[in-house]
């Protein structure tokens, strides 16, 4: 069936060429985008000025000797009227015989309002811009399968206004964050995506090979260690918005590649971060969706209210009745099993604690707040708390039962940092593929001296939460498993 349709369109393509119409010209004659026409419609109608628009035909409706078409150019949609006596018999007949839904055309004409109140351009001339060979999916029947929507995302975005709106909101989301950082004196920087030693997060990296230098490299799992080198270099307020790559599972919250903000602020600490981050989130939410509240799985989330502060140790004790200070590693594993969890044998204490918290405690933290001062075992790059060396000066933004950002007072003691990285290296040797590496170059940079500083990062997971979608729904082209073949 599809091949038959394609065959008919190829015939129309040949017919266009035979009438000396270029089916794929390099330029358009438009002088207005459709949104401009709609925004100035009354003036254009009154002046009877000829306007030229261009776009894709989304529908065709024939009524005797006239045809109505809906034309879409990405900025808006407008109705076009084709009348034989207005554009001439040959152009009209050619349009009817050679043009299909989905084709791109140029149209020039004058504006008027139909008896039904529809803003319309009456065509005086048209030309083809792109002849399509495959039909668009039907509005109500095409692309219902989620996997097919992701594979043909370009059609999903074209045919689904709700999907287009998601990505318009996503553009506002990152613009708001970038504008906020610039307005507070932060300089935007770029750091390497290819790294010889990936670090800055607990994650398994993707590995590649650079032929020119005959060396293995990794796609970064975080820009953190390079951004901290810039603190050493004297850059005191910096941020980066860029892609991150992690070789981990696929679920509602996780992707293999995604966009993340990280910023670093010299002479600040984690307490300095809290009001700054709260203001950043509140502004970003409003700029993105137009309000400070939204629905999430049937619950109204309010970002404008004063955020709660959750103590990590107290949350664990309140929810499952255990004291993290007094429990041995073996006792923690027993407790995890009681909770129905199966931590891998080779992972360390920090990973077991983190698993318990993520699976049992965090899902109950619904309204926005800060989770503070976790055990040192789970954060090898954060500074120890003054007076409590078993905890670190870290905050996490939590809402909707998940983590939506993390920051801390940065560890700038090179001796302590080496010891913690060496412990991570031992965990990796034992089989923990997500443990952090020992980065000698970074340790050397710290030995030249890094000022006290605070750092923070958030990813596009925040955007997915505030529009109440799975993160794959908010991604232009999510990675898909190859199609099965019958070979």
Structure keywords:
487 residues, five-stranded mixed β-barrel, alpha+beta, 16 helices, 35% helix, 20 strands, eight-stranded mixed β-sheet
Give a structural overview.
This protein has 16 helices and 20 strands. With 487 residues, the chain is an alpha+beta fold. Helix 8 runs antiparallel to helix 10 (270-289). The model has no long low-confidence stretch (mean pLDDT 93).
Question: What is the gist of this entry?
Answer:
With about 475 residues, the chain is α+β, with helices and mostly antiparallel strands. About 35% of the residues lie in helices and about 25% in strands. The strands form five sheets. Strands 6-10-11-20-19-18-15-14 form an eight-stranded mixed sheet, with helices on both faces. It has a five-stranded mixed beta barrel with strand order 1-2-3-5-4. Strands 7-9-8 form a three-stranded antiparallel sheet, with no helix packed on it.
List the helices and strands and how they pair.
Elements: H1 2-18, H2 34-39, H3 41-47, E1 51-63, E2 66-72, E3 77-83, H4 84-87, H5 89-98, E4 104-113, E5 119-130, H6 146-151, H7 153-159, H8 161-183, E6 187-188, E7 194-195, E8 207-210, E9 215-219, H9 224-232, E10 237-245, E11 257-266, H10 270-289, E12 293-296, E13 299-302, E14 308-311, H11 312-320, H12 329-338, H13 349-361, E15 369-372, E16 384-385, E17 388-392, E18 394-399, E19 402-409, H14 414-429, H15 440-447, E20 453-459, H16 461-466
Parallel strand pairs: 3-5, 6-10, 14-15
Antiparallel strand pairs: 1-2, 1-4, 2-3, 4-5, 7-9, 8-9, 10-11, 11-20, 12-13, 15-18, 16-17, 18-19, 19-20
Helix pairs in contact: 7-8, 8-10, 12-13, 14-15
């Amino acid at each position: 069936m599809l091949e038959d349709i394609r065959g008919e369109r190829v015939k129309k393509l040949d017919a266009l060429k035979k009438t000396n119409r270029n089916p794929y010209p390099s330029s358009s004659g438009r002088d207005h985008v459709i949104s401009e026409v709609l925004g100035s419609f009354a003036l254009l109608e009154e002046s009877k000025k000829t306007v030229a628009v261009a776009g894709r035909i989304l529908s065709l409706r024939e009524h005797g000797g006239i045809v109505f078409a809906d034309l879409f150019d990405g900025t808006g949609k407008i109705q076009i009227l084709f009348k034989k006596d207005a554009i001439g018999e040959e152009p009209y007949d050619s349009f009817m015989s050679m043009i299909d839904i989905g084709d791109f055309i140029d149209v020039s004409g004058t504006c008027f309002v139909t008896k039904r109140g529809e803003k319309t351009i009456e065509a005086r001339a048209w030309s083809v811009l792109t002849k399509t060979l495959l039909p668009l999916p039907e509005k109500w029947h095409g692309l219902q399968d989620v996997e097919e929507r992701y594979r043909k995302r370009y059609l999903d975005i074209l045919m689904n206004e709700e999907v287009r709106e998601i990505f318009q909101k996503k553009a506002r989301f990152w613009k708001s964050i970038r504008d906020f950082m610039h307005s507070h004196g932060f300089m935007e920087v770029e750091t390497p995506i290819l790294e010889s030693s990936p670090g800055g997060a607990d994650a398994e990296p993707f590995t590649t090979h650079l032929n020119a230098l005959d060396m293995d490299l990794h796609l970064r799992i975080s820009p953190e260690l390079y951004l901290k080198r810039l603190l050493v270099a004297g850059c005191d307020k910096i941020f980066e918005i860029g892609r991150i790559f992690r070789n981990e599972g696929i679920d509602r919250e996780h992707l293999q590649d995604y966009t993340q903000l990280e910023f670093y602020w010299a002479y600040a600490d984690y307490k300095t971060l809290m009001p700054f981050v709260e203001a950043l989130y509140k502004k970003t939410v409003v700029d993105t969706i137009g309000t400070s509240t939204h629905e999430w799985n049937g619950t109204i989330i309010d970002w404008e209210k004063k955020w709660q502060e959750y103590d990590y140790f107290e949350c664990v004790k309140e929810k499952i009745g255990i004291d993290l200070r007094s429990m041995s590693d073996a006792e923690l594993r027993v407790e995890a099993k009681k909770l129905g969890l199966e931590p891998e044998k080779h992972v360390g204490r920090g990973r077991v604690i983190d698993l318990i918290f993520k699976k049992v405690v965090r899902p109950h933290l619904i309204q926005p707040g800060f989770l503070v001062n976790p055990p040192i075992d789970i954060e090898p790059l954060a500074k120890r708390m003054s007076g409590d060396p078993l905890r670190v000066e870290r905050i996490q933004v939590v809402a909707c039962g998940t983590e939506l950002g993390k920051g801390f007072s940065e560890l700038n003691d090179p001796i302590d940092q080496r010891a913690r990285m060496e412990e991570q290296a031992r965990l990796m040797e034992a089989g923990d593929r997500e443990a952090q590496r020992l980065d000698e170059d970074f340790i050397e940079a710290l030995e030249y001296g890094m000022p006290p500083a605070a750092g923070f990062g958030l990813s596009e997971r925040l955007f997915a939460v505030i529009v109440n979608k799975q993160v794959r729904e908010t991604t232009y082209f999510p990675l898909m498993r190859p199609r099965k073949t019958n070979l």
